[in-house]
Specification:
InterPro entries: N_methyl_site, Pilin-like
Transmembrane segments: 20-38
Keywords: Membrane, Transmembrane, Transmembrane helix
Number of domains: 1
Shape: globular
Helix content: 25-40%
Oligomer: single chain
Strand content: 15-25%
Distance between the termini: 73 Å
Largest sheet: 6 strands, mixed
Order of helices and strands: HHEHEHEEEEEEEHHEHEEEE
Protein name: Type II secretion system protein
Length: 346
């Protein structure tokens, strides 16, 4: 083939142009080369998006670390990822996920069902698969703890059928899933501001009022076992970090943008340190007296991780972390590889 290419170029030099046969040969060679290179280029592009996402998160963590060092608190005016229905009732995303399936279990409008023909859902399916979020209603003790961490105001995401533009908080609105609630003023206003108090609704990792990981019945798998019970709040355009100029605007995940036809919410998130009052609820939910040990096994490496949650034991403000809107964070697995293997109470 090399000799044939040389002949083609020698003829071009002597005759001033290609014959039709020679052009076809060149095109065939180029097509062959492109077929070889294209998969590698696709991997490079995908890797670049992952790198940008990790960079965005690392920058957010640096800003948060500086903020907590200066103030001893987390930023205010974060986004609760809770959506209310047209009667004003908070919707639990765990009720819209088939718990017999670990990674593609959406059965409603809250979580991406991987079918853009149905329109856009609210959250990424990968986000939910990694976090298994549950609806958590704050009692007075939890509200007091959250306020002590600096979070006294939140905005409910409240995606509804009247939402026309997500602006900095997510992907462009194209076609909404028809199951998304209708808008009723005062019941489910988009980005509705509220005080943090008893009754405030939030989403928490792998736990909720009527939701927990179960080794005998789904769900069992999660991406971040050490964050069980931690509240997840979004960094939107109204957050204190943006208001005070700590960051210019609420960042968007490049991988989430690529799947903009599938889901709406595409902001980065702060994972709040586990509250002592939530630890109490987790212990009680698993039938413990003083604590519970959750043993997880990595299905890929066989590694074991024990998450020990003691009654009355909360985490410090500096123990926050971040998630991208697809549930990942830097240097961690990008799929739910941790399987709940055993529950021990004490």
């Amino acid at each position: 083939m090399k000799e044939r290419v040389r002949k083609v170029f020698r003829r071009l030099k002597g005759q001033g142009g290609f014959t039709l046969i020679e052009l076809l040969i060149v095109i065939a060679i180029m097509g062959f080369l492109i077929a070889m290179i294209a998969p590698r280029l696709a991997k490079v592009a995908s890797g670049a998006s992952d790198t940008v996402c990790d960079t965005n998160q690392m920058r957010l963590r640096q800003v948060l670390a500086a903020y907590t060092e200066k103030t001893g608190q987390l930023p205010n005016y974060l986004t609760s990822l809770v959506c209310h229905d047209d009667a004003g009732k908070a919707v639990d995303p765990s009720t819209q996920w088939d718990m017999t399936k670990e990674e593609d279990g959406s059965k409603g409008w809250y979580i991406d069902n991987n079918n853009k023909v149905d329109g856009q859902e609210v959250l990424s399916k990968d986000f939910y698969a990694m976090t298994k979020l549950g609806l958590l209603t704050l009692d007075q003790a939890a509200a007091d703890e959250l306020r002590a961490l600096g979070i006294s105001k939140i905005y409910y995401l409240n995606v509804n059928q009247d939402v026309k533009a997500m602006e900095y908080i997510g992907n462009e609105v194209k076609k909404l899933n028809e199951g998304i609630p209708k808008h009723v003023a005062g019941k489910n206003d988009f980005m509705q501001e509220d005080d943090v108090k008893a009754g405030t609704a939030v989403l928490a990792v792998g736990f909720g009022d009527n939701h927990k990981l179960d080794p005998t019945a789904g769900p069992k798998k999660i991406g971040h076992p050490d964050r069980i019970g931690c509240i997840v709040l979004g960094v939107g355009p109204n957050s204190e970090l943006v208001r005070e100029g700590q960051i210019q605007h609420a960042g968007l995940c490049p991988n989430g943008i690529k799947r903009g036809d599938h889901f709406l919410y595409n902001n980065y998130n702060i994972v709040v340190p586990r509250l002592a009052s939530v630890a109490d609820k987790i212990v009680a939910a698993y039938g413990g007296t003083n604590g519970v040990k959750l043993t997880f096994k990595n299905e890929e490496t066989g590694e074991t991780k024990i998450v020990d949650i003691a009654k009355g034991q909360g985490e410090e403000v500096w123990q926050f972390t971040t998630f991208c809107p697809e549930g990942c964070n830097p240097m961690a697995a990008d799929r739910p590889v941790w399987v709940l293997d055993k529950v021990e109470t004490y």
